[in-house]
Amino acid sequence: MNSPRYKAALIGCGNRSRKHVESYEHVPEAALTACCDLIEERRAGHAAEYGLTAYADAAEMIERERPDIVHIVTQPADRAELMHLVADLEVPASVVEKPLAAGVTDWRSLVALERRSSTRFTVSHQFRWHIDLTRCREALQSGRLGAVRFLETSCGMNVSNQGTHALNYVMSLNGDARVHTLFGTASGMSGSDPTHPAPDTSVAHLLFDNGVRCLWHHGTTAPLIGDPATTYQHVRVAAYAERGRVLYEEFRNWEIVGPDGTECGHVGATWNANNLLAQAGLTRATLNWLEDGAALPGTNLNQSLHEFKTVLALYASTLRRQPIELASFEPEDDLFEQLTAVLS
């Protein structure tokens, strides 16, 4: 067996990090060797369970281990600072959990980082590599369904918690065309998660640069497609084309309807296994980008910064009660504080 070509390390040993670690079973070209967490119990637990070297300090881990790729799996408020650290220490690549920013200030700092850094950052919208979403995307790319006319996507959690996932997945069905204009609104802050702060519910109409339109809906008023008691089981994306349509529901079903009939299946029974495969797909795409600079993954930092700007445009549209053109949009530093004051 060939030795792995790449060395990986992990920052953040919470529950979400386990999928990052365990996905390396499907990444034979790399080996995860070290982990870091401020909480001793968590880093020691990962070290014992997965055979990793544990560190309390991220900079020390990177300087000693010299990893080719670092996974940042911390709370949103910590991610921008750690991304700057990873870039300053010249780590070649990094996978970052979503959302990559906690507000306008973080977003601005990461825009500047993306312009100066040689580190190749990707954001963990891992289900872009899910086998069933991939088959839907390939059906559209084949041309047999004709041109995409309209998109819709929704999720049961708020725009910070799942809305960026939903946006990235639906954009993958539209060739990752950029958002030109957004018109939206939001309501309520009573259920806002302190780690993923956002309105309780929000909805927006998007116009993309290629003329395709999309309905983007999150939170308490979004469609329920799974167990009503579990807010996270309602992510869905759909594309309607000239001669057919595709549907992907993260925990339930997928469907491709075209001139030759219907293909369909059930996602939920294999969600955990496919989650690991999708996470591995993201990691392998990031490593492939190191080898081929033209192989740009659809969750690269530049793309993800545009998607987070779309979230900020949703907040601004709510406050201004008018459409927002993203090219000319410059969010105020206290945009979220303004929104909180109004919605509270």
Task: Describe the protein in words.
This protein has 344 residues and is an alpha/beta fold. It has helices at 17-22, 40-50, 58-65, 76-88, 104-116, 131-141, 159-172, 271-291, 301-320, 335-343; strands spanning 6-11, 30-36, 53-55, 69-72, 93-96, 120-123, 148-155, 179-187, 201-208, 213-219, 236-241, 244-249, 253-258, 261-266, 324-325. A nine-stranded mixed β-sheet has the order 14-13-12-11-7-10-9-8-15, with helices on one face. The chain has a six-stranded parallel β-sheet with strand order 3-2-1-4-5-6, sandwiched between helices. A hairpin with a 4-residue loop joins strand 9 and strand 10. Helix 4 (76-88) runs parallel beside helix 5 (104-116), helix 5 (104-116) packs antiparallel against helix 9 and helix 9 crosses helix 10. The radius of gyration is 20 Å and the shape is globular.
Keywords:
six-stranded parallel sheet, nine-stranded mixed sheet, alpha/beta, globular, 344 residues
Uncertain runs:
none
Supply the helix-strand structural class: alpha/beta
Helix content: 25-40%
Spatial shape: globular
What do the pLDDT scores average to?
96
Tally of helical runs: 10
Q: Please list the strands of the largest sheet in the order they lie side by side.
A: 14-13-12-11-7-10-9-8-15
String of helices and strands: EHEHEHEHEHEHEHEEEEEEEHHEH
Strand content: 25-35%
User: What does the radius of gyration come to?
Assistant: 20 Å
